[in-house]
Design brief:
21% strand, globular, Nucleotidyltransferase, domain 5, five-stranded mixed beta sheet, 17 strands, alpha/beta, 37% helix, Arc Repressor Mutant, subunit A, 3 domains
Length: 401
Amino acid sequence: MKLSIEQMASLESEILKQVRARPGISRIALSRELQIAPSTAGSYVGRLLTEGFLAESETADYEAGRPPTALRLNPDGGQFIGVDFEARKVMAMAVDFSDRPLKHSHRDIQKSDSAVEVVQKIEQAIEEVLPENRGRLLAIGVGVPGLVDPINGLALDYKYIRQWQNVPLASPLARRFGVPVYLENTIRSMALAELWFGLGRGVRDWVCVGIRSGLGAGIVAGGQLQRGADYRAGEVGRWRTVLPKRLGVRHFLAPGATASQPVELQEIASARAILAALEHGRRAGEKSVLPPPGEPLVFADVVRAAQLRDKLTVQVIEVTAEMLGWAVAQLALALNPSLVIFAGPLTLLGDTLLLPLREHAQKLLEMGGAGTPTIVNSTMGEFSGALGAAALAVHEWKPAR
C-alpha cells in the first residue's frame, strides 16, 4: 500500500524518535520496533542518511560477513530552539539535532511590560540563539505560562503579565522565523525536560511541580505527559486553601484579609509570594538580614537569608513548605505517583524548604493510610523549561518531503 506524503513524514519522524531513544540501533531492530518490513526501514533510513539527519558506523562486534551498522543522530542535521518564559524573564536555548545545548540567552520582563512587549522580548531572545545559517533552524518550541491552546497556537490567559489574554503566538513566530512553532504550558515543558533528560527519565508515574511567579504541575502517567481534555491539566496553583496557623502567615495576608479566608495556593507557595511576604515583613520593621526597605529584594537575598537561618525568612518559608506539603499530599492521593520533582527557584532553598515540606506531606498521607512518594529537587537549573520546549520541537517536528 502506497503511503501518503503525511504518512511518509510521520514514519520518518518515528524512525528519528527511535534512534534518539536508542542510539546505535540497527535497521533490523528499527523494522521490528516499528513493525515494518526491513526493506522499508532500509529505504527510509537511506533517505534520512542522504538528507543528513542520520549517520552510521560499523558496530564493534560481528561475525564473518558484512558488518552491521549502528544508526545515530547527526548533530549537524539542524537546530531547534526552545523558549520558556514567565512573569520575570524569557529564556531561550538552541540545541543541535542530537539534543546537545549550543547557546542560550535571557531577557528580563518588567512588571509594566504588556503582552506586546513580552512577545517582542521572546523574538529578541530567539534572535540571540539563531544559527549563523538560519536555514539550519528546523523548529521552535515555546513553553507558555498559564492556560494555552496548542492546537490554535494561542496563549489564553496568565494573570501575571499585563494584557495577556488570547495572545496569538505560534503563527506570528512561525512567520517571522520561517519554521514550525509548537506551544506547550511552561510547567509541562519543565516536565518534558525531566522526562527526557532529568530525574523523570525511565519513571512511569510522577509529577513535576514547577514554582516561579505561579505554580503548576506537569503530570506524567504511564510514561506519558498528561495534558487534559482542554489542555488544563495541572493547574494546581489555582487550588484554593486556608492558610496554616503559623507565625509567618501574617506576612502573606492582603490588607483587611484574615487567615480564615481561602486563597489560591500560588498566592502562598511561589517565588513571587515569598518575595511579597518578606517585603511586607521588612516594611513592618521585622529584624532581618535581608536588605533594608527601599533596596531591591531578589530571590538570591532569600537564599542567603535562609542559609543564615534568618528568623523572618525561615518563618515565611515554613508557611510555604507546609502548603506545598499539603499540595503534594493531595496530588499523591489523587494520582499515586512514585516521584514528585520540584523545579524552579525555590529549589535553591534546599533542605530549608524540602525537609519541612516532606515532613508535612508524610504526616498528612499517613493520616490517610497512604504512602509518601519520593520528593526531590530538580537538578536541571533555570534553563530546564527552555530545554524542554526545545525537546518539544524536536519531537513534534517532521522531515519535509
